[in-house]
């Protein structure tokens, strides 16, 4: 156990003693912790991640596989990636594939798709499955106008992630990883240096790095070529949208019996993120009215969202559906 923890986390002697004390407290306080090993692993993760928390945002959420509503082929690929994360030490080091590739023992993943299609949730599921923390990096805050500062920021992030054995998620990677420009001035030259540095640093990193991109065609081809896996997240079809709608409300939410999931799924081409936003607004409407969440609240939230996003006919379609439903009940 000690060897495994030492291999995963870079902790000083003082920090190791702190981890042991924290593990003892965790095991005594939390009956859900099944063993001393689990308590020590959790304590070591928390201590090792403190440095990374200063330069990135902890993005681990309690997401699990059943919550991912995606096409079967996409889910299969994600399960293969989960297996690759678990087996990477064996493949790269024990089987010496690292010597064959000449690269690090890390994995580089590209998650491509529109906002709200499940990229961040999938990253969280992979992290939870692997028992690793997920840290989100805001590239906009990393990039600096001062020469050399961007590289220093990136080095701090990768070094801290290495110490913590955490997964890095570079969200909206297009901000820094666009196609390198033809050099016309000093700005272009330094921008290209930053991209080249990130590419080099990713290749020498022993952990898991996920690039999330809304516009994968804008990424520098050098990054696309080096990805071990590329996962495309498309907009859900009507069948998947109905699954998303039906799974959006927790069991604690009081629901009226009049919600027509098939209608809203078939009429409105929404992403999972859109559906989550609308469901939350409908829940707030119902709570404010002291009622259960029903079609009336969903219609109001849907109409507002669709009008805002350039679908003024949504309200009319919803009213027509309401009229037909009322006739059916009469």
TrEMBL record:
Keyword Lyase belongs to the record: no
TM region positions? none
Q: What family does this belong to? A: Belongs to the AAA ATPase family.
Molecular function via GO: ATP binding; ATP hydrolysis activity
Report the SUPFAM superfamilies cross-referenced here. Answer: P-loop containing nucleoside triphosphate hydrolases
Q: Origin organism of this chain?
A: Cupriavidus oxalaticus
Keyword set for this entry?
ATP-binding, Nucleotide-binding
Tell me what this protein is called: AAA+ ATPase domain-containing protein
Q: What InterPro entries does the entry give? A: 26S_Proteasome_ATPase, AAA+_ATPase, ATPase_AAA_core, P-loop_NTPase
| Pfam families associated with the record | AAA (PF00004)
